[in-house]
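Pasting two entries for a bug report.
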Amino acid sequence: MAKKVAVIGAGVSGLVSLKCCVDEGLEPTCFERTEDIGGLWRFKENVEDGRASIYQSVISNTSKEMSCFSDFPMPEDFPNFLHNSKLLEYFRIFAREFDLLKYIQFQTTVLSVRKHPDFSSSGQWEVVTESNGKKQSAVFDAVMVCSGHHILPHIPLDSFPGIEKFKGQYFHSRQYKHPEGFEGKHILVIGLGNSASDIAVELSKKAAQVFISTRHGSWVMSRISEDGYPWDMVLHTRFISMFRNVLSRFKIIRKWMMEQQMNRWFDHANYGLQPQNKHLMKEPVVNDDLPSRILYGAIKVKSRVIELTETSAIFEDGTVEEDIDVIVFATGYTFSFPFLEESVVKVKDNTVSLYKYMFPPHLEKSTLACIGFIQPLGSIFPTVELQARWATRVFKGLCTLPSEKTMMADTIKRNEKRIDLLPTLCG
């Protein structure tokens, strides 16, 4: 008898998890709280609680060639980098091709996922859902958590003294949809991730002035690399991977080469963007327009905000910008698993304790996996496919995980170590 698997969420991770379950002969049921598939990549004009939200202009940072699933290339007439509507179209085609919609229960919210009383021997889970005001409970042999991590906004207002006095408008980047309505404004964007950079660039075409405040700086890459090819097609090759592995023994050379490559497009120091720690850092920003908008003066790079007044922002370097109308907090998201007991997936300081970013290491049975809670340098879509393929094979017993001690040691090491996400060559 096929094992029953509960898949939570019908975004990208949920869809590919459904396919992998079917491929392995498992019996999946997907619970999706909204009326449609697509998750993060389905743009809606209004922000909805419990659902990821994107702005209208979002374009993929990775190319279609490197972002498609392993057995399903994107249509040839699609552009190399895809608007969110095109990506959603691809996921719809994918779902139809593999007949995945029949496994999805739409407008169904997962209220709780708890261990079955005999979990230590069966590894089963009791899943309680609600649809149209009616609660239901079912037992599953395994669970795949595909709910995403761009839902609960992180707004550290305590880090911005004076915010309570500020008379202008402020909101999290999750609430931003399009630049209309910001004409002639003086806008402060806090953060220097991909969303912050996209929003700052877009607003700078309508606003009187945009400021972007960064604590640590960031490397900025273009989608266009050598000879006009997409950056990830140039970067992610077997040769470069092999070369990077060889150079990993010579850290000084590797760091020097990485810095040289990252500054080939423009010298980050001249733009106020050079990371404080040039070698160990977060995910780089992919933005084709940010340097030129800074050159135009449409965007001004500022240091960390130390205080806000009724109308102005005071920065760490002592400068002050007056007449600020709007503050956009592009300060990321907080991991949240409201349907899980805290003991199942532990979150501390916005870090999740998961073996290889997937498996809770302390469970007696490896029957729960989190899919898509990772930020690779490159496309997340083939990454989540590999995660789903591994998880389903673990559920079937075809793959086994190491001991709890080994998994905990690996997880602690990963969480403590600031991983160098930038390879030696960046095209």
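Entry 2 (this is the one that rendered wrong in the viewer):
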Amino acid sequence: MARMEPSTEQVPATARILMVDDDPGILDVVSDFLGKHGYLVETAGDAREMEQALERGPVDLIVLDVMLPGEDGLSIARRLSGEGPPIIMLSAMGEDTDRIVGLELGADDYLAKPCNPRELLARVRAVLRRAEQRGQANAIGAGCEFAGWRLDLVRRELRSPPGVAVNLSSGEFSLLRAFVERPQRVLTRDQLLDFARGPDSDAFDRAIDVQISRLRRKLDDGGGGTDLIRTIRNEGYMFTAKVKRT
């Protein structure tokens, strides 16, 4: 049932995209549109077909519907978080709480259905661009140290001062990376959104505050002994530690 949609325009394929949705009409429209813009798009109708597609070869991005038969999109995002390719979630449920849940489970972006294919194309380009930028940065420096903590940017691994591995969601990792790359500077919520998720994110997103709260809790539980993320009243947040690249 899964199929490959080749580009119909004379443009190079920039990435392999796996779209998972149980609506054949949406699969046809979106895969054709993305294909015409140079992407190789493979489609799947549920988690089983998605796994079969991933077994055939790696993909650069998954566009994942929330409401799927069998295992739903949120469960899939949780399972693939930190190990699979970037994920853009699509859902008819566009409330802030639904979007926050999706981002916290590891999705890199979240778009409400029905969506304009051109907006989805812009989100795809933004997520792939951030993934490429992370890869380029990883080639320059493998990690950093701060207040006894060690952050490996290639393995996406955080270790506490006692050496214990701390699990981070995709959103928490992106946020921590934004902080360690700009230590001891006041960063507004809008800046953090741009640094962590790119300029295509919504200008106002409560998920940033939720992720900062959870990231703080993990840093506190890790035995750092310091307030590494400080709230600057009416301005934003500051990462207080000195950061050493390794």
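Dev reply: Rendering is fixed now. As a check, the viewer should reflect this: Residues 82 and 170 are 6 Å apart (CA to CA).
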